[in-house]
UniProtKB/TrEMBL annotation:
PANTHER family: ANTIPORTER SUBUNIT MNHG2-RELATED
Transmembrane segments: 6-27, 39-59
Residues covered by region (Disordered): 91-111
Organism of this sequence: Tropicimonas sediminicola
Protein name stated in the entry: Multicomponent Na+:H+ antiporter subunit G
Compositionally biased intervals (Basic and acidic residues): 96-111
GO molecular function, one term: sodium:proton antiporter activity
The keyword Acyltransferase appears for this protein: no
Record lineage: Bacteria, Pseudomonadati, Pseudomonadota, Alphaproteobacteria, Rhodobacterales
Length: 111
């Protein structure tokens, strides 16, 4: 194995750790909104690290993997925002520790 492949394996391992933390976050967080945030942020970083590691191992795939990473960077935050808004509209309650509800405040200002 060359040095680039070893570095690729290390970066992919870091990505796998972040993906495991995302799963742990989904299990440990108290409500839907914090689960969405924990899952989205950690899976985005974990997946991008995994793609970077794969690009280091297989440099010929670099452009394709970069396009996939860019697609993920745009779609993961958007999908989490859509999920959170749908949960809010459905009336899913937040935990008592949550102090602010910016979406409800915006609706009150518009009304």
């Amino acid at each position: 194995m060359n040095a680039l492949a070893i570095l690729g394996v290390m970066v992919m391992t870091a990505g796998a750790v972040f993906l495991a933390f995302a799963g742990l976050g989904l299990y440990r967080m108290p409500d839907t909104y914090t689960r969405i945030q924990a899952g989205t942020k950690a899976t985005t970083l974990g997946t991008i690290l995994t793609l970077v590691g794969a690009a280091l191992i297989m440099p010929d795939w670099g452009v394709k993997l970069l396009l996939i990473a860019l697609f993920l960077m745009f779609t993961n935050p958007l999908s989490s925002q859509v999920l959170a808004r749908a949960a809010h509209r459905a009336g899913v309650p937040a935990t008592k520790e949550s102090k602010a509800d910016a979406l409800a405040e915006d609706r009150e200002e518009l009304a």
